[in-house]
Amino acid sequence: MTDPVLSVRDLRVEFVTRRGVLTAIDGVSFDIARGEVLGVVGESGAGKSVTGAAVIGLIDPPGRIAGGEIRLGGERIDALPPERMRRVRGKRIGMIFQDPLTSLNPLYRVGRQIEETIRTHTDLSARAARQRAIDLLAEVGIPAPERRIDGFPHEFSGGMRQRVVIALALAAEPELIIADEPTTALDVSVQAQIIALLKRLGRDHGTAVMLITHDMGVIAEAADRVAVMYAGRIAEIGPVRAVVGEPLHPYAQGLMGAIPTLAHDADRLAQIPGAMPRLSAIPPGCAFNPRCPKVFARCRVDRPEPLAVGSHRVACHLYDASGKAAA
Amino acid sequence: MTASPAPAAPAAPEDYVRVENLRRLFDVSRPWLNRVIERQPRQILRAVDGVSFTVAKGETFAVVGESGSGKSTVARMVVGLLPPSGGEVAIAGVSMTDPRQEAARRALRRRIQMIFQDPYASMNPRWRVDRIIAEPIRAFGLIEGERAIRARVGELLTLVGLHPDDGAKYPHAFSGGQRQRLAIARALASEAEFLVADEPTSALDVSVQAQILNLMRDLQDRLGLTYLFISHNLAVVRHMASRIGVMYLGRLVEIGGGRELFSAPKHPYTRMLLDAVPDIGRSGRQRMPVQGEIPNPISPPSGCTFHPRCPFANARCRAEVPPLADGVACHAVHEGRLAPGLAAAG
């Protein structure tokens, strides 16, 4: 197996506030391989977006990366000086956000924005950059790209804008794309098109994709592997079929049961009591223990370490080091 | 079942809500002077264009559609927040539009309540929760005496899964899911029997959404409530509703029982939507690639408004608006060219 594109080890992100230091991300580790889509799923406050922001070096003070390593293609990028990180961000990591208008300048034609990215990060001529921008727009499925390239962002529909942003993210041929809720603002019919597009581009270009979303359905459709986050930690990570079909962590089990599905009738949805803890009040031991239906004494004291159980890695005391469910 | 042309006589007992040929136009023209100078015609947006359905007492009817389909406009007209441009809404046999029934309508008003996507926006942040929930009780004079009102507020808070002591807090002290519980408690405070819920769980996390959906079903069982449930989320709709109407560009394109609609959808748009939904229960299946986007509702396509995206469209579809008959508004189905079923690709 080749080296992963992105490798995150023991990442820790803290926010310094007047009331003390809050730990938003606590000991998160994962890899993403070439051409692989890793889904990062969790509810609000789970830390999924902060994880993405840490990878692209966009944690603003009072936040800081307080520990761990982030490697892109083997090279450490978590402690680069801002100017060098800026270049990594444009060239080697592409970004897609929920609202495409935050990534597009409303005053410039979309072609100019894509060409600018191409010319900043490659040595193509102006002419070649324009041709490449047209090719990119065609690739992301924008009809009549040679005409639409001279349009302004407001002239595109929401789905088409998100396609432009994807073209922009691909412009410098990055190794990694971070997509934070890329389809959340879109209607289902458009969402399906964007998911299919992201999946195909990852495969065709060999780009690693980190897909951050709260929507388990999107993950099930688009991702190869999935990490389920809870209170700044990864509760469970594994192949998407395995985690969705047979979740091991009690939180992941509760989450899957809580999602209404088209496939079958459920009289009642599974219900996890309570809510995600605030960062200032993360319980000791396993962060999920106050809400867990299977909690026992050790969960309230010892923090569970992620262990391999079959194809999953699970941070839960129910499973022991041999990978079997403990009695 | 729904396309009955009968006049607005008192509804049959099983039809608690009857909506007939409901229409709403919005004038989205530029200002008069601009129109004169730039020689532009008036622009009329037909947000809702001839929608008819009925809701039986104690059932949940859901309206599902994408943005711009007109589903929220329907909800707002049914509760009376927006006057219809045409058509008729009757609830519990009382016409909501006939000026002669004003007295009956006023008596009915408090029985009809609405729940919004953002409950915080509908609460006064400077009022304590017990005052917010007691307001309808006081306004309608339902209970006499402070002590009795306080007891009723405590009862309502318990009913929606909160604690009577929570009444002393302000709305900001509650999470999103708890605020939606407060909104439901306030709706029930006026002894509502018909709740119109417009995307009530769209802003909530899935585990919290499950809590609210379960609560709404429990309350329906206990109190015999009738729901009109508006959502863009097909899986949520399937979980909640006994009957469902699918809207596309201001019109109902299909209406039917939840089970049939999801197992054997008739309208090509319903098939496309069902196929497009990312769903954990059906991952890895073959899907029909979705074509195109929703057209601009100001200048909708001629005939059946879905025809530019429809693989089964022919000349008639481009020219003639299909009527809603047998629960579906589609020429291809009416002509027998298209059989119901999930295998959508033609």
From TrEMBL, chain A:
It holds the Pfam family ABC_tran. This is Oligopeptide transport ATP-binding protein OppD. Residues 8-256 form the ABC transporter domain. NCBIfam families: oligo_HPY. It is a peripheral membrane protein. One of its GO terms (molecular function) is ATP binding. Its main location: membrane. SUPFAM superfamilies: P-loop containing nucleoside triphosphate hydrolases (SSF52540). Keywords: ATP-binding, Cell membrane, Membrane, Nucleotide-binding, Transport. The keyword Repressor does not apply. It is found in: Cell inner membrane. It comes from Methylobacterium isbiliense. It comes from the Bacteria. SMART domains: AAA (SM00382).
TrEMBL record, chain B:
It is found in: Cell inner membrane. PROSITE patterns: ABC_TRANSPORTER_1, ABC_TRANSPORTER_2. Keywords: ATP-binding, Nucleotide-binding, Transport. Residues 17-274 form the ABC transporter domain. The keyword Repressor does not apply. GO terms for molecular function: ATP binding. It is a peripheral membrane protein. InterPro entries: AAA+_ATPase, ABC_transp_ATP-bind, ABC_transporter-like_ATP-bd, ABC_transporter-like_CS, Oligopep_ABC_C, P-loop_NTPase. CDD domains: ABC_NikE_OppD_transporters. It holds the Pfam family oligo_HPY. Belongs to the ABC transporter superfamily. This is D,D-dipeptide transport ATP-binding protein DdpF. It comes from Methylobacterium isbiliense. The gene is ddpF_1.
